[in-house]
Write a structure and sequence with these properties.
homodimer; 94 residues; alpha+beta; Mth169, Chain: A; 2 helices; 30% helix; 38% strand
Chain lengths: 94, 94
């Protein structure tokens, strides 16, 4: 089993209200930042998964998104999978 | 001026409590997902910025993160900048 690092982004679907994004946009305007054309806020979820390969890690992460992490009616998600550096190198089993 | 799409990820600093991540980790366990070694939850913020170039867009986004989007004591942030496709192609000014 290898360790994979999955970065998930869950975002409100286009067209749906995003009150937190609107609040941040307003705050940026108040702070004097010009040229901000849009702000959308969602969740960034980092998963550390044990899996036999990248495809399995991605398939499981997608299933977790569909079943728990994202609301299929109001949210979209995207994810990236990367093999985690083997941090266990410092703890040999011998 | 060009349009840039900036993806910001704001995450709780390593070692700090992340109750939402813990709750999701517990829920994944309850749903029968094994091999989940860690879950961290933060914010995914998408900014649409007008800027003269990529460097300016990134510098302004970093400043926004430092001043508003991330709590410098408890959160880290990372961001990626991409030039947005010119969606105005469909609305000629003629």
């Amino acid at each position: 089993m290898k360790r994979f690092h999955v970065e998930v982004r869950v975002k409100p679907r286009p067209g749906l209200l995003d009150p937190e994004g609107k609040a941040i946009h307003h705050a940026l305007d108040s702070l004097g930042y010009e040229g901000v054309a849009g702000v959308r806020v969602g969740k960034a979820i980092d998963l550390e998964l044990e899996a036999s390969g990248r495809n399995e890690a991605e398939a499981r992460a997608r299933e977790m998104c569909r079943k728990l992490l994202a609301n299929p009616v109001t949210e979209d998600f995207e994810l990236t999978v990367a093999e985690a550096p083997s941090e266990d190198a410092g703890s040999p089993s011998s």
